[in-house]
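Example record

One chain of 178 residues, shown exactly as stored in the release files.
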Amino acid sequence: MTSPHSPAMGSLMLDAEALYKELLRYAQQTITSTTQLVGVTSGGAWLVERLQHDLNRSLPSGTISSSMHRDDFSQRGMSSGGQTVLPFDVTGADILLFDDVLYTGRTIRAVVNELFDYGRPQRVQLAVLVDRGGRELPIHAEFAAARLVLPTNQSLALARSESGNFSFEVQTKQTKAS
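Predicted structure tokens for this chain:
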């Protein structure tokens, strides 16, 4: 039986809370007192918000949107997922970027373009809960709590309950019959 926090992926069970704990351990080992945490809207921003609390960090964190630099903007339109807020100087910063799921690499490409609109960081690293493969661009995560392969007609997204607990939502796109 599958709990609402662990969707079944064939025989694979994904526990978002357990993966978050792995991400937290990675952050504890990786960040320094000057590392800036930035989350991609919305899943990555949720991760950073919780990391800030769990790590008891006083440095302000940032949120970054991919909507203005998407290469599929004409198809998707303006996303209501949030706006970029970077309450620190990006130029020369050591940035640890967080996202929930890495797939094609297009969102991360757009986010990096957005980041460079604000300045030139010294370094940008990427950490994700899940790397599902299927890259269309040469983008990789320094850290992924899990790696898996999903059919191209399925999407995986982080969900957050009112109490702040994480779970995954799996959606299947209907294909047109021939």
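Notes: The CA atoms of residues 36 and 95 lie 5 Å apart.
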